[in-house]
């Protein structure tokens, strides 16, 4: 298939480009390079484009006529979304709405959306399944949930079929070493810890040690970025079956690890010690986010290549 990978110059998007190319799809990356890097797009074509630019988007759809779109083009920093909600609603909601309208205008009716576990807010129960109430506690999560609601309406009105993948914590990197995380500033826990283990940072900070967990630190579910990419390809296969309906899936590994556990695991695997600082909580961080992956396994036949924290960490070494 010919796939537009919107946001394909970013961390998850660039891994998606490589995995889709290796699966013999024709990939075209659309990115405004606000947080991505063009040299991370190793395969297929690259088109500079901002999803807020409807005219540019329409021209690219007319030119390339893609069969499907995968959307990775959201701003995703929880803290920043609280201090700059306009930025998040404009890009994540208005930009996505522009993209969907252009898709419909050009009869492109298959869409895979990178949603987030942030739509659930503070969980009522764990592991979190797809029926869990959606109660986001920050603008980032709210922007993702707004798009999910828009997608339901576009399906009913225009026949646009979609999958929303609610990511938990994407982690790891390309095992062949061609791709890496390049966030500036880096906010993801595992690469920060690895930087400390490699001597690139003087310390690692734990934000909150009084959460409702066994050791007081936040618990998160980590899924390898290549497993996310593989799930997207299986989602595309799912949408190609004309008998199926649009759907939402949680993507995680079904197991949670506390911040302190992750730190200790990196120290153990790398055999490196480093300073750990305890600081206050960050606004908008739930205590526990762990996925139920039962629906994805049943409907999409998801089989994780990197099911454990050890395997994920080793791809970062």
Q: Would you kindly provide a written description of the structure presented here, covering whatever features stand out?
A:
The chain has 2 domains: 2-170 and 223-251, NAD(P)-binding Rossmann-like Domain (Rossmann fold), CATH 3.40.50; 174-220 and 253-314, Alpha-Beta Complex (UDP-galactose 4-epimerase, domain 1), CATH 3.90.25.10. Helix content is 38%, strand content 19%. It has 10 helices and 14 strands. The strands form 4 sheets. A 7-stranded parallel sheet has the order 3-2-1-4-5-6-11, with helices on both faces. Strands 12-9-14 form a 3-stranded mixed sheet. Helix 1 (11-22) crosses helix 7 (225-239), helix 4 runs parallel beside helix 5 (139-158) and helix 6 (189-197) runs parallel beside helix 8 (259-270). The chain is globular, with a radius of gyration of 19 Å. The mean pLDDT is 95.
Spatially, the strands of the biggest sheet line up as 3-2-1-4-5-6-11
**How many helices does DSSP assign?**
10
Task: Fill in the CATH topology of the largest domain.
Answer: Rossmann fold
Classify the helix fraction into a percent range. Answer: 25-40%
Radius of gyration: 19 Å
Average pLDDT for all residues = 95
The largest pleated sheet is described as: 7 strands, parallel
* Coarse morphology: globular
CATH architecture of the largest domain: 3-Layer(aba) Sandwich
Distance between the termini: 34 Å
Low-confidence stretches: none
Question: What is the CATH class name of the largest domain?
Answer: Alpha Beta
The CATH fourth-level homologous superfamily of the largest domain: NAD(P)-binding Rossmann-like Domain
* Total number of distinct structural domains: 2
**Record field, number of beta strands:** 14
């Amino acid at each position: 298939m010919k796939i537009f990978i919107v946001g394909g110059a970013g961390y998850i998007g660039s891994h998606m480009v490589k995995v889709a190319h290796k699966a013999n799809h024709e990939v075209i990356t659309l990115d405004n390079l606000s947080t991505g890097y063009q040299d991370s797009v190793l395969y297929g074509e690259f088109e500079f484009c901002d999803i807020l630019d409807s005219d540019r988007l329409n021209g690219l759809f007319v030119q390339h006529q893609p069969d499907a779109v995968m959307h990775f083009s959201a701003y995703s920093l929880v803290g920043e979304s609280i201090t700059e909600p306009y930025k998040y609603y404009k890009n994540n909601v208005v930009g996505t709405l522009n993209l969907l309208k252009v898709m419909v205008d050009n009869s492109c009716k298959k869409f895979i959306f990178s949603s987030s576990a942030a739509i659930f807010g503070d969980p009522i129960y764990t592991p979190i399944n797809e029926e869990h109430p959606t109660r986001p506690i920050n603008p980032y999560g709210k922007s993702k949930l707004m798009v999910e609601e828009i997608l339901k309406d576009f399906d009913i009105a225009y026949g646009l079929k979609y999958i929303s993948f609610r990511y938990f914590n994407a982690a790891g990197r390309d095992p062949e070493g061609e791709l890496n995380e390049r966030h500036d500033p880096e906010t993801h826990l595992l690469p920060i810890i690895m930087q400390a283990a490699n001597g690139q940072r003087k310390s690692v900070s734990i934000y909150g040690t009084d959460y409702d967990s066994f050791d007081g630190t936040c618990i998160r579910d980590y899924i390898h970025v290549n497993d996310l990419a593989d799930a997207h390809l299986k989602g595309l296969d799912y949408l190609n079956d004309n008998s199926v309906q649009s759907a939402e899936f949680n993507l995680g590994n079904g197991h949670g690890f506390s911040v302190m556990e992750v730190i200790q695991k990196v120290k153990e695997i790398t055999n490196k010690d480093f300073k750990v600082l305890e600081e206050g909580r960050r606004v908008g961080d739930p205590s526990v986010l762990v996925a139920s992956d039962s629906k994805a396994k049943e409907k999409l036949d998801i089989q994780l290549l990197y099911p454990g924290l050890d395997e994920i960490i080793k791809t970062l070494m």
